[in-house]
Amino acid sequence: MTTILVIEDVESLREEIMETLSYEGFDVLGAENGAVGVQIAKTYLPNLIICDIVMPELDGYETLVALRQEPKTSMIPFVFLTAMIEKADMRQAMQLGADDYLTKPFTSSELLGAITSRLKKYNSVREHYYDEIKAVGERFEYLSHHDELTKLPNRVLFYESLIQAVLHAKINSKSLALLFLDMDNFNIINNTLGNDIGDQLFKAIAERLKRYASPCDMVARIQGDEFAIVIPDIVDMLSVKRETQTILDLLSHPYNLYGHEIFITSSIGITIFPDDHQEVDGLIKNAELAMYYAKAHDRNTYKFYSPDLNVQSSEYMALANSLHRAIDRQELRVFYQPLVDLKSGQIIGAEALARWQHPELGLIMPGRFVPVAEQTGLILRLTELILSSVCEQMRLWKELGINYGFIAVNLSSQHFRPDNNLIELISKVLQKNGIEPHNLELELTESIIMQNAEFTIKVLSQLQSMGIKVAIDDFGTGYSSLSYLKHFPVNTIKIDRCFIQDLITDRHDAAIAIAIIDLAHSLSLQVIAEGVETVEQIQFLKEHGCDQIQGYFFSPPLPTNEFEKMLIEGKCL
After folding, report:
1. Are the C-beta atoms of 310 and 290 separated by less than 8 Å?
2. Is the Cβ–Cβ distance between 391 and 384 less than 8 Å?
3. CA 441 → CA 411, 448, 481, 556, 564, distances in Å?
4. Could you report the per-residue pLDDT of 248-258, keeping only the tens digit for each?
5. For residues 416 and 426, what is the distance between their CA atoms, to the nearest angstrom?
6. What is the pTM of this model?
């Protein structure tokens, strides 16, 4: 029932209005002055208030102000009753927030007409307000369960849907596959092309996954560049493998965004219900673990969960924790593998290679701990430690009058981010030890060079202007583009060992090696062959003009004292 509050100090008029309204079916409340009216309004929250202006204690204006200041009563329609007919008085009433006014004397029809009009408008506004609240609620409900960018279900809805899918599979004795997908090197896209294009790429990836997935499959964006797919009612493992490979191929096709042709791959982890686990949390953990394994080892591939991964994960965590302490405890050692000039046969330098002298596991090779350092962010501290150690050693050799030529130090892609001041670090270490820049060479791979090309060119140009040499390591296994060799300031190319090991027996490897040597020399670059192990390889490389070699034929990587002894003795090829 609609409730109306009448605030009028003249009792007879108040009773007359209340009687008229009661006869029309309204629930009516009365107040003899503004102060009482305000209290009744706060208590009963009427649908409309009729109020006289001239009253003792609290007049109509003051009553309206008091009600509009109270959140609970601020929106109640308010109609003034007044004997005043001055426009200024009415203007003041409307400015304070009155909805209408009636001039005394008034008829019952005028009173009911004003009430009907105000209530109709009030109900219309209220319905609109409620519709807006409902729309906001629905929007909030949608956003709480969906990713705003891609419109895919988010982690919350994914989790709820996976619970239902597992329950359905249990009831019907079915199997399902849970896939976790992570985009490989997505940060390169954002760093190179910007977050806007990165967002558009996310949307394009989501569209491909949605178009590919069957109506029964669940596709969700978990977070960042991670997606998940639930495939119910799987028949056998072969069908899961085929479907997963199709997804890998689908995502690896180029994306054309704002004039850019973008390539990206993904790593996928797969777990099977009920074989691997029968609970949702366990399945998610398994799929994530398998995905991280695929990402850490091969990329652009998929990996099924197996119990062995739990053991490997534990070993990884133990190794990561130990590596933190190893850096602090200075357990890292530098070994030196000689670089030999093919014409003179003399040692002209060496590559510095890290080894971890673990107190329990013994000597750990870089292939085992460097990926851990990369993934945990310790690679920056590790490289700084190696660089400092190498420069200190070069200072000692210089003081002893030992000619070591130059020493090459490997860099990670993480050093070529705008927030890592590589130039400042190298300048500081060289200056501290009094080392000439030409005695230092920095090695980086083709993939590092291409990650953020514009910024990398700037950094490499600064390094070269300082007199530091730059080498491309593992050449031939990455982009191997003539265009980047033309634009990037580098001094040396190192032919990857995979082209050297079968050089004599495989004509393709021989042709590639010759082509790299000719290419480098045409660009006035030096060439080093890595992994040289036989005299036949030496002879071949000499005949085709390779400048330097590195490998076990001459020497494996050596501890500092053994390499120093080799320098003093003047060992030659």
Report:
1. no
2. no
3. 10, 16, 22, 19, 19
4. 999 988 888 88
5. 13
6. 0.54
